[in-house]
Amino acid sequence: MVVCIVVLGATSTIAEERALQLAGIDVKVWSQTIDDVHGQPVVVFSHGFHGCATQSRFLMEALAAAGYLVLAPNHRDATCNGGHGHWFEQPQIGFWKPQNWNEATFDDRGDDMRHVEEAARVDDRFARADWSRLGLVGHSLGGYTMLALAGAWPEWKLGGVKAVLALSPYSQPFVVHGTLEDLAAPVMYQGGTRDFGITPAIEKMQGAYDQSPEPKYLVVISKAGHLAWTDIGRAVFRKPIVDYSVAFLNRYVKGHPAEPLLSQAGLGISLFRHPAKP
């Protein structure tokens, strides 16, 4: 077990990290108190293509410090932290061909998330968490995975989801097929002005943001590239990522009142779009 100290504002909070298996899948877990998760809302995280469960440790630790039980599996394409993927492996269908993607594309990732969630619900270590408050978080291809589970691929739909946080998500297949209107939970998209391969498809007219139902948010971080949401990204981007992520999840997973952070753009934010009544 790894114990990390996370500083939030003027206080320090201990976030514990543990490696284990659920449903035969390698999973990393973060929590303030992994041995007693009673009542904690749950977040599950899906990593990017060739990433791994610990690729965004700074954000996972911050979510745990904010009171969430965080579960992050290694998908088959993971290339670090014990993953079995290989860097030379290509995606099932090229990212430049979103029109050819369908509900079968990377469905193993959807299965991973579903199996981990089902196993954790009945596991003695996690059964007492508050599974009625469930949030989905994903980066890049993990964002694709979580949008699909939130309803963008109807056959993938996972019940009981309160919010989906899509971090520089590969949303182009849903934009092309027009399925984001089927999202069944509030969504926050995050992108960057230097995230050239992803963010334009979110913020353009009739892009992912426009096609998604309310309530929806879009945060574009100045000078952030695609890897800003991972631990190899520049540390300067971490505060706005953490602040907006925690505020959004607290609003829709925990049910907290809307915070001022969600009603005005902060330092380092290039674009902030939000519902009239968050």
Description:
- The chain is α/β, with parallel strands linked by helices.
- The chain has one domain: Rossmann fold.
- It contains seven helices and ten strands.
- The protein has helices at 57-65, 107-122, 141-152, 172-177, 199-203, 208-211, 238-254; strands at 2-8, 11-22, 25-31, 41-46, 69-73, 130-139, 161-167, 187-192, 216-221, 269-273.
- Strands 1-2-3-5-4-6-7-8-9-10 form a ten-stranded mixed beta sheet, with helices on both faces.
- The longest helix is centred in the last third of the chain and has 17 residues, at 238-254.
- The chain is globular, with a radius of gyration of 17 Å.
- The relative contact order is 0.13.
- The model has no long low-confidence stretch (mean pLDDT 91).
The low-confidence runs, each spanning 5 or more residues with pLDDT under 50, are none
The biggest sheet amounts to: 10 strands, mixed
Strand content: 25-35%
Radius of gyration over alpha carbons?
17 Å
| Count of strand segments | 10
Q: What is the average of the pLDDT values?
A: 91
Q: Which H/E pattern describes the elements?
A: EEEEHEHEHEHEHHEHE
Given helix and strand content, the structural type is alpha/beta
**CATH homologous superfamily - what is it?**
Alpha/Beta hydrolase fold, catalytic domain
CATH architectural group? 3-Layer(aba) Sandwich
How many domain units? 1
The level of helicity is 10-25%
Write down the CATH class.
Alpha Beta
- Reported by name, the CATH topology is Rossmann fold
Overall geometry = globular
Mind sketching the topology for me?
Layout lengths: L1 E7 L2 E12 L2 E7 L9 E6 L10 H9 L3 E5 L33 H16 L7 E10 L1 H12 L8 E7 L4 H6 L9 E6 L6 H5 L4 H4 L4 E6 L16 H17 L14 E5 L5
Parallel strand pairs: 4-5, 4-6, 6-7, 7-8, 8-9
Antiparallel strand pairs: 1-2, 2-3, 3-5, 9-10
